[in-house]
Write a structure and sequence with these properties.
Strand content: under 5%
Low-confidence stretches: none
Order of helices and strands: HHHHHHHHH
Distance between the termini: 29 Å
Structural class: mainly alpha
Shape: globular
Radius of gyration: 18 Å
Number of domains: 1
């Protein structure tokens, strides 16, 4: 029913926005720390969601995903511009910048877990908005971390793999990027367990390490 989807969207919206914002902010802060100030010069060195929002990836695609009842919310923020020529060690630094996005999601997942833990400690129940939103925040950020670590260009996992390949092999591997979206949709529709199994594992791990009551 539409009312159920609107309620679900109210729970998903904040965690999703945090997930895409901190993911791109992670790339921006890492690149800046390693010598590339491109993101900073374009105002992307920020935790403000508004500077990272993409109309299609942050608004339209997530809405379609909810309305279409996909198994999980998908979407993205504006990619942070990276200029590898400013890095001292390009391969190493590109790996660090690529991993900084998923690491940002892990940080948010842990933050949400602590908010959930303290909320429950102050009497929040499974019926409360804060409880549902923060648990979904853990799940959503673990999902984004796992999703982006898939070794498929143009995802971060693909960017990491590329740095360990010889030049010609890396060039051929990078050529997959235009088809990456279709590969990912195929995985989501036909083999979503590839994403969901490690996501649930990471969600349970974060919840357990933070000590959220179950």
């Amino acid at each position: 029913m539409m009312a159920d989807k609107i309620h679900l969207l109210s729970i998903m919206a904040l965690p999703f926005l945090l997930a895409v914002t901190l993911h791109e902010a992670g790339h921006a802060f890492a690149a800046n720390a390693l010598g590339d100030s491109t993101a900073k010069s374009q105002g992307r060195l920020s935790l403000n969601p508004l500077v990272h929002v993409d109309k299609v990836g942050t608004v339209i695609i997530p809405l379609v995903a909810v309305l279409a009842s996909l198994p999980f919310l998908i979407g993205y923020a504006k990619p942070v511009p990276i200029q590898p020529r400013y890095f001292k060690n390009m391969r190493r630094d590109m790996v660090i910048v690529a991993l900084a996005g998923p690491l940002g999601n892990l940080v948010v997942a842990i933050f949400c877990a602590y908010v959930l833990r303290f909320s429950i400690g102050f009497g929040a129940t499974g019926a409360d908005w804060i409880t549902n939103t923060m648990y979904y925040g853990i799940f959503m950020n673990c999902l984004f971390m796992v999703f982006n670590l898939l070794p498929i260009p143009p995802l971060d996992g693909g960017g990491v793999v590329e740095q360990f390949l010889p030049y010609e092999a890396a060039k051929s591997y990078r050529s997959i990027a235009p088809y990456g979206f279709f590969i990912l949709m195929g995985i989501i529709i036909l083999a979503k367990e590839i994403i969901l199994v490690p996501t649930f594992f990471m969600t349970d791990l974060v919840v357990g390490l933070v000590g959220v009551p179950v």
